[in-house]
Design goal:
This protein is mainly α. It has helices at about 10-15, 15-55, 75-80, 85-115, 120-130, 135-145, 150-160, 170-200, 205-210, 215-245, 250-255, 265-275, 280-305, and strands at about 60, 70. A two-stranded antiparallel ribbon has the order 1-2.
């Protein structure tokens, strides 16, 4: 008795569902890795590896001309008695306080006006325009405008019969002046970030508030600010860490003067590394600054509960 072999069915010849499902994620993973590879390579080459090198240099005594010599924690212990370091930290904290308070208040005000008064793309472009100008260009322009001798601002002040103000030449004026110059440049960008957060708040909440007779001021405190908290947390982390790293405005205008009145921590690191050639000590100060910024960012995110939203 002979039997005829039946041809394999289409169901048996086709690859099973799980097999197809396993191959597809592997292709997606390869494509994803291909897209992130350039950014990852740039991160490793320009951020991660320099960070490791800087950490290694912080335990060395190195002046560029001789071979590095391991000194352990000497650079960090030197910081404890370095009056210039502590003065630079104090000046930086003063700058950060002025910059963050003024910039955040103005940015929120501008963003609310953009939401309530006009949502014109042209107006938003004008608001963010100062951020597109180079920091060095902005610093030079304000340096000339505020000059005690030939500046247009002091010309107006003396025209009113008042004494000229040495904005960049007097210890009491120099840090607030530098802070407000950078507020002018960055507040439009910060306002645009806050405006993006405002656009996520449902309009129905404001309509319900108006029905209940709430004023604009009441709705701002009871609706806008609570629902804007995650965005404000992100904005504060960005602006605070950026403010701690102020450098170019100081380098272009005052070079840390008069005296050490505007010697912020970033300029002090630059001075140590590229003018005094104390690369090891400069690296140690950089590591301390990195640790401070990491702690500040972590504390900000925890206190503001940035991962939670009242809209949920």
């Amino acid at each position: 008795m002979t039997t005829t072999a039946s041809p394999p069915s289409a169901a048996s010849s086709a690859p099973s569902g799980p097999a197809r499902a396993e191959r597809k994620p592997s292709r997606d993973t390869a494509a994803a890795l291909g897209f992130i590879a350039p950014a990852l390579l740039g991160f490793v080459a320009f951020y991660f590896w320099p960070t490791l090198r800087g950490l290694w240099f912080s335990f060395q005594e190195y002046d560029f001309f001789d071979r590095p010599r391991f000194v352990g924690l000497d650079n960090y212990s030197r910081m404890l008695g370095d009056e210039t370091f502590w003065n630079a930290m104090q000046v930086t904290l003063q700058y950060v306080a002025i910059n963050i308070v003024v910039q955040t208040v103005l940015a929120v005000l501008i963003a609310v006006l953009l939401q309530r008064v006009t949502r014109s793309v042209f107006v938003r472009s004008v608001v963010v325009l100062p951020f597109l100008i180079s920091n060095v260009v902005v610093a030079l322009l304000f340096y000339w405008m505020l000059d005690a001798q030939i500046g247009i601002v002091n010309a107006a002040i003396t025209g009113l019969g008042l004494d000229a103000i040495p904005f960049f030449g007097e210890q009491d004026w120099v840090v607030p002046t530098i802070a407000l110059v950078n507020v002018w440049r960055h507040m439009g960008y910060t306002a645009l970030l806050v405006f993006a957060g405002l656009m996520t708040i449902p309009e129905g909440l404001y309509e319900a508030g108006r029905v209940d007779g709430a004023s604009e001021w009441r709705m701002f405190w009871s609706i806008t600010l609570p629902l804007l908290r995650p965005v404000l947390a992100l904005v504060l982390v960005i602006t605070v860490t950026g403010s701690f790293q102020v450098f170019d405005t100081v380098a272009v205008t005052t070079s840390g003067g008069p005296g050490d009145a505007s010697r912020v921590i970033q300029y002090y690191i630059f001075d140590l590394a590229f003018q005094r050639l104390e690369f090891g000590y400069a690296a140690a100060v950089s590591v301390v600054l990195f640790a401070i910024l990491a702690v500040v960012a972590f504390v900000q995110l925890r206190l503001t509960r940035a991962n939670e939203s009242d809209l949920a």
